[in-house]
């Protein structure tokens, strides 16, 4: 996923543009610090709150992990704002992007889960939640939820399943996926370690739960080193048929 | 089916159940009316159509190579599997050819979310048509339906370019009555053969300037029950074209060059598959937004079948080997020449 950049304009003085995160509507590069002439300030309903989410599916388990930093521009709003939300006993969703939309989206999903439970007398399966989320996101095709979602859980057969989404609802079942601000750094590492890509003559060993948890921890430590929006702490949710087990591990705070 | 469950669920919100109304909403002027039956009508439909002039802070996924053509064995559809998003590969293993029903697939190009959802809506509508009328809607009808559904969104950022590939069955109550078991020329009616033979003219057709061809099609269809392979290109800007060969996407110019030289009606299935694979491979070689693997689907009178996904890396090495063998052969030939 493209490195999302903050979509809100700093109040500028003297009509010069500070070196700040630019709206993606521009060239995508950072503009130099020079006088550009009068700049129109516009209210943007979006903001970028950072954060990275990762999910891995194993033979009989799934892991959803996220960092817990909530930032905006140069500030950190909170060091304890995890981005994994428990939906059912077998499904966890990780949402990163604009925190306001994350909160609303999870509220809507919770409400729809309850309604399904009441009218169908059973819990929604991971696949069904993924399909439903796709239509919820597409319903706002022309004013999207600025959220990168990844659902991790167990499917009906008890195997691990990961579903990754784009902000407008296109989704796909995967074995592993990283989303959020450090996704471009983490995804190639996961491709190599879990997907055995770009290596020749290597034995494809299936991933065990403990190895997967260790890998996730290592991967987030690396992400915190290089991505400013990722850090503070790591929240890991391990989903097995016994239930959901949550662990927290500290990361770099700078 | 998940979509059926989703449809039933919508009844909780809607006051009027749309099953009694006309089955397909052709020619509805206002988009809002149509949205009653669609999955995203839980909030007030009017508000969904207020498009605030806000620049999006993120890019949406795009870019592809897809192709489809008719031949004596039915329809062959092929696509790459790379889904890119402003310079990053969002997904190296995406599915661009989606089955709509047992005898139709749709290759999708454009924004992945738009394509995925609209093909899903199309399959729902076709299933409802089948349940209400006892027969499948023809590919031409399905293309018209999709085109009319996309029309209210003309001018917006919606981007869907789909090729609907399928086999129009002559079946009533499950029987195929036009030589459905055979896959050679006997399985198709005259109109299908005419389309296939006119490969050149169909490629030159411009947007909606084919009323004469369409008109003829329509008349002949009234008389005989059309049965055979069929190919339609539908685009969110309003284009709806019938043809025998289409390629869509950023890599399509490269694919067209391979297809134009090799595609003939008389191809066998293996030849057609290798041509399709070669065309996608060439496109992925030159186009940055296409790559990774190739998916090939074959639709015959019995329905669609899918080949297992092939990594184009293997194709690259096979070609390299072929070229080296060719060069070695040339060198030995020259040596033999000089030796005389």
What does this structure look like?
With about 250 residues, chain A is an alpha+beta fold. Chain A has helices spanning about 100-120, 125-140, 185-195, 210-225; strands at about 50-55, 60-65, 70, 75-80, 85-90, 90-95, 145-155, 160-165, 170-175, 175-180, 235-240, 245-250. Helices cover about 25% and strands about 30% of the residues of chain A. Chain A is globular. With about 350 residues, chain B is of the alpha+beta class. Chain B has helices at about 1-10, 30-35, 45-50, 110-135, 140-150, 190-195, 200-205, 210-225, 250-260, 270-285, 310-340, and strands at about 65-70, 75-80, 85, 90, 95-100, 105-110, 160-170, 230-235, 240, 245-250, 295-300, 305, 310. In chain B, the strands form three sheets. In chain B, strands 1, 2, 10, 11, 12 and 13 form a six-stranded antiparallel β-sheet that branches. Chain B starts with a helix and ends with a helix.
The main β sheet of chain A shows up as: 5 strands, antiparallel
Helix content bin of chain A: 25-40%
The coarse overall form of chain A would be globular
Helical fraction of chain B equals 25-40%
| Cα gyration radius of chain B (Å) | 22 Å
Q: Helix count of chain A, per DSSP? A: 4
Number of domains as seen in the coordinates of chain A: 1
How many β-strand runs of chain B? 13
Cα separation of the termini of chain A = 24 Å
Structural class of chain B: alpha+beta
Oligomeric form:
heterodimer
Subcellular location (chain A): Cytoplasm; Nucleus
InterPro entries (chain A): Ntn_hydrolases_N, Proteasome_bsu_CS, Proteasome_sua/b, Proteasome_suB-type
Keywords (chain A): Cytoplasm, Nucleus, Proteasome
Protein name (chain A): Proteasome subunit beta
């Amino acid at each position: 996923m493209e490195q999302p950049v903050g979509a809100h304009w700093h109040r500028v003085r003297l009509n010069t543009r500070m070196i700040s995160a630019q709206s993606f509507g521009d060239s995508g590069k950072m503009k130099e610090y020079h006088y550009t002439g009068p700049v129109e300030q516009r209210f943007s309903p979006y903001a970028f709150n950072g954060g990275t989410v990762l999910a891995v599916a194993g033979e009989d388990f799934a892991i959803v992990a996220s960092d817990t930093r909530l930032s905006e521009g140069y500030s950190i709003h909170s060091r304890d704002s995890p981005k994994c939300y428990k939906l059912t006993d077998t499904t966890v969703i990780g949402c990163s992007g604009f925190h306001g939309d994350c909160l609303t989206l999870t509220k809507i999903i919770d409400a729809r889960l309850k309604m399904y439970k009441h009218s169908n007398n059973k819990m929604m399966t991971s696949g069904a939640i993924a399909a439903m989320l796709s239509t919820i996101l597409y319903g706002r095709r022309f004013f999207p939820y600025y959220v990168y979602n990844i659902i991790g859980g167990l499917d009906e057969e008890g195997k691990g399943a990961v579903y990754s989404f784009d902000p407008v609802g296109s989704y796909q079942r995967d074995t592993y996926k990283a989303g959020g601000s450090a996704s471009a750094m983490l995804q190639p590492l996961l491709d190599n370690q879990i997907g055995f890509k770009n290596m020749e003559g290597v034995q494809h060993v299936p991933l065990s739960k403990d190895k997967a948890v260790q890998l996730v921890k290592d991967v987030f430590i690396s992400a915190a080193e290089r991505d400013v929006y990722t850090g503070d702490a790591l929240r890991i949710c391990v989903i097995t048929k016994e239930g959901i087990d949550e662990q927290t591990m500290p990361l770099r705070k700078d | 089916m998940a979509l059926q469950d989703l449809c039933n669920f919508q009844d909780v919100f809607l006051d009027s159940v749309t099953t009694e109304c006309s089955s397909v909403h052709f020619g509805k002027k206002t988009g809002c009316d149509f949205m009653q039956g669609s999955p995203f009508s839980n909030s007030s439909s009017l508000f969904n159509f207020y498009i605030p002039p806000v620049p999006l802070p993120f890019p949406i996924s795009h870019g592809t190579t897809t192709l489809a053509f008719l031949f004596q064995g039915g329809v062959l559809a092929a696509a790459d599997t790379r889904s890119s998003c402003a310079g990053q590969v969002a997904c190296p293993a995406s599915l661009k050819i989606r089955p709509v029903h047992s005898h139709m697939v749709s290759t999708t190009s454009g924004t992945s979310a738009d394509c995925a959802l609209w093909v899903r809506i199309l399959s729902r509508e076709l299933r409802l048509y089948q349940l209400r009328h006892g027969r499948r809607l023809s590919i031409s009808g399905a293309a018209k339906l999709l085109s009319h559904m996309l029309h209210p969104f003309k001018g917006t950022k919606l981007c869907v370019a789909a090729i609907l590939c399928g086999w129009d069955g002559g079946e009533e109550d499950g029987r195929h009555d036009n030589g459905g078991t055979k896959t050679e020329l006997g399985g198709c009616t005259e109109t299908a053969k005419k389309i296939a033979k006119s490969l050149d003219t169909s490629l030159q057709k411009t947007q909606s300037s084919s009323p004469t061809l369409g008109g003829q099609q329509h008349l002949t269809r009234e008389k005989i029950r059309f049965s055979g392979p069929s190919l339609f290109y539908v685009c969110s800007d309003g284009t709806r074209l019938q043809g025998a060969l289409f390629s869509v996407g950023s890599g399509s110019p490269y694919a067209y060059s391979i297809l134009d030289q090799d595609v003939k009606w008389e191809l066998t299935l293996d030849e057609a598959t290798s041509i399709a694979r070669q065309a996608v491979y060439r496109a992925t070689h030159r186009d940055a937004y296409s790559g990774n693997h190739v998916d090939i689907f074959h639709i015959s009178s019995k329905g669609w079948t899918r080949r297992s996904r092939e990594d184009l890396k293997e194709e690259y090495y096979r070609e390299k080997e072929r070229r080296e063998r060719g060069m070695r052969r040339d060198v030995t030939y020259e040596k033999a020449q000089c030796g005389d």
